[in-house]
Amino acid sequence: MASEDVKSTESAAVSTIVNLAEEAKLAREGVKAPSHAVLSICKSLFAGGVAGGVSRTAVAPLERMKILLQVQNPHNIKYSGTVQGLKYIWRTEGVRGLFKGNGTNCARIVPNSAVKFFSYEQASKGILYMYRQQTGNENAQLTPVLRLGAGATAGIIAMSATYPMDMVRGRLTVQTANSPYQYRGIAHALSTVLREEGPRALYRGWLPSVIGVVPYVGLNFAVYESLKDWLVKDNPFGLVENNELTIITRLSCGAIAGTVGQTIAYPLDVIRRRMQMVGWKDASSVVTGEGRGKLEYNGMVDAFRKTVRHEGFGALYKGLVPNSVKVVPSIAIAFVTYEMVKDVLGVEFRISD
């Protein structure tokens, strides 16, 4: 009887030890899973940020030239075209003038790009899950329309989160050495706008930005991913190597995506920039026209109406040439840099998954 009691006690002790070991294992796994998820999120955000910074710095002079062409006063034309404008900046402001506003731009685009790529991945996962649930097909993949929706969602989230930075970046880019009042940097510009124009001024032009970001970012992702899928599956031009596309091919896909998106959304970008200049009492002469009739806008529709009435329909595409030259390589570099950085960091999830 005593031996049976001892065996029973030993059995209970062993069972307790096993249970404690299992609980400890589960606890370790429970701690490991979230930390792994957080690390993966950080890697994705970092890759997106690097992609944005590299791509935007590479085309900074064209970005500044585009904005100057967009907002210059029609009564006092200083920049008649891309080449003339870049030469004029080089002659009057030097090399630094070509990159004016790029620090602010990178401070905006790095978090914007990080949030945009990460939001696209998460939106894609969510939309794909709902699509598979609805169709009952566990092997279903994202269609171009669903990718467009995921891209539009990512664009709206990223743009809204970083819009105040975009607003002051536009003003820093436009000001010249002869501007009556100089913003000394990002923080100074933000504080000055808040003090003199109020918090709403930081979101001036937000509505056309939201409307424009839907086709722009949505089409960028949808066209890029759809082109990649088509080339990998059908291999029409023999560009696939080991079921992977070369860097040149991916750059070409990004260039086509950027061209389609920016051409459709460009007029809204012009209106957004012009609305951002409203209320700037010490604006550059590029905007004021040296007192020859500074235009004021009461909203997006009014900005469209006045721009077309005073300058013609073509004014909605002012700066399109430098923007096209800028956007095509910029989008291409951003997509490829993002994927390469994620490969280096060992992040398995890709946009097209």
UniProtKB/TrEMBL annotation:
It is found in: Mitochondrion inner membrane. It is a multi-pass membrane protein. One of its GO terms (biological process) is transmembrane transport. Signal peptide: none annotated. Its main location: mitochondrion. The keyword Ribosomal protein does not apply. Solcar repeats lie at residues 39-126, 142-230, 245-344. Gene3D superfamilies: Mitochondrial carrier domain. InterPro entries: MCP, MCP_dom_sf, MCP_transmembrane. Belongs to the mitochondrial carrier (TC 2.A.29) family. It comes from Brassica carinata. Keywords: Membrane, Mitochondrion, Mitochondrion inner membrane, Repeat, Transmembrane, Transmembrane helix, Transport. The lineage of its organism: Eukaryota, Viridiplantae, Streptophyta, Embryophyta, Tracheophyta. This is Mitochondrial adenine nucleotide transporter ADNT1.
